[in-house]
Design goal:
The structure holds 2 protein chains of 2 kinds. Helix content of chain A is 17%, strand content 55%. Chain A has helices spanning 2-21, 107-121, and strands spanning 25-27, 33-35, 45-54, 57-69, 72-78, 84-91, 94-100, 124-126, 129-133, 136-143, 146-152, 156-163, 166-177, 180-188, 193-199. The model of chain A is unreliable at 3-15 (pLDDT under 50). Helix content of chain B is 24%, strand content 43%. Chain B has helices at residues 2-15, 23-39, 110-124, 153-156; strands at residues 19-20, 42-52, 60-69, 73-80, 84-89, 92-97, 100-105, 133-140, 143-150, 161-166, 172-178, 184-194. The chains are: A alpha+beta, B alpha+beta. The interface between A and B is medium-sized, with 27 and 25 residues.
Amino acid sequence: MRYLLSSFCLLFIACGSYSKKHDFQIVKSLNSRIRNSYFSDESKDYVYKANITVYDNDFSGIFIVKKIGEANHRIVFTTEMGNKVFDFSFIDDTFKVNNIIEDMNKALLINILKKDFTVLVKEKTTVIKSYSLQDTLVYETVILNKKYFYFKTQQLNKILRVASGKEKVTFLFSEINDTIAHQINIRHSNIKLNINLKLIN
Amino acid sequence: MPKLFYILFFIATAVNAQTKMGSTEAAKLKAKVKAHAASVKTLLSDFAQYKHLDFLSNDIVTTGKLAFKSPNTVKWEYTTPFKYAVLFKNETLFINDEGKKSNVDIGSNEMFKQLNTLIINSIKGDMFNENEFDISYFKKETNSEVYFSVKHEKISKYIKVFHIIFNKEGHVVELKMIEPSEDYTRIIFSNRSINIPLSDAIFTQ
């Protein structure tokens, strides 16, 4: 119990500090939910050329996202020549590995990708607090027990995962046209992992 | 019941506009393809690659040029919708990803070596190795189609069967690699030039 209590205090301090440190001004919640519409059209095949850097190793290939149904997405990564590297399903908050090559079949890596891609495709998430930062609205939320800040100027252009008052993962959406982000970058601060996606269709 | 059987049989025949080849005909095709493959010193061809994933609305189409030089140098160069080239040469994989160059030593990787051999053999069409494949032959209008079911346990996890369509001359016009999930990669070759001089510059990156 004491441990739990101190964990809560720590969590509170940790979360409070990031927004304070960056001068976020609390505003009355404008929306109860924040939307990420970048993978929300079931009729569309989202196909990106991907460059992934993991600990100085470069991989490239084709990154495919498809919305199959409500809160149901499929993500497949293949080499340029068409060989599947991994194939994941995200249904509600469940995650399933349909296929992964032996070299990448490591629990640690799969867990990182699961967390990143869950955020990438999650369309609606409950807002815990809202802030303003100059002309940007910032929404605080929790996904898979991790704290995130969604930054929205005209569109959603950044998502941050924060822990212990520090940025852990940054999702950047740019060259946004309607509800399609032509460029997406997912960068980790604590591990050498960087994912660059460039729309090709 | 017999009626239903006939209907089903008719549908099956109508859908598969191809018939199984007799053994004499199959032997002839095999000999023709092998002779042609042995005579190929260089090959240059355009290709269109269709990646089919069952859940997608459309196949992902990429196009480019293929260059081959005997005995085992091959370059796949994608030009649309992105620029990407991969060159298999001297047990090394040279990659040029929109100007960013890297290479992978595949000398120590058995799986890569086998895949490379498979790719080269499939371009030429000469995969008639009964230790490695279960082979079946079909007639498809004026062309022939051969199914090569992979016996190798590790490789069959990625590709379970190769379908190769040969034209009358025994040249590969289409290559389809089917995964255990039934998703596949289909490559259609066009504008083929055989045994024309290819400069070394093509095989450097």
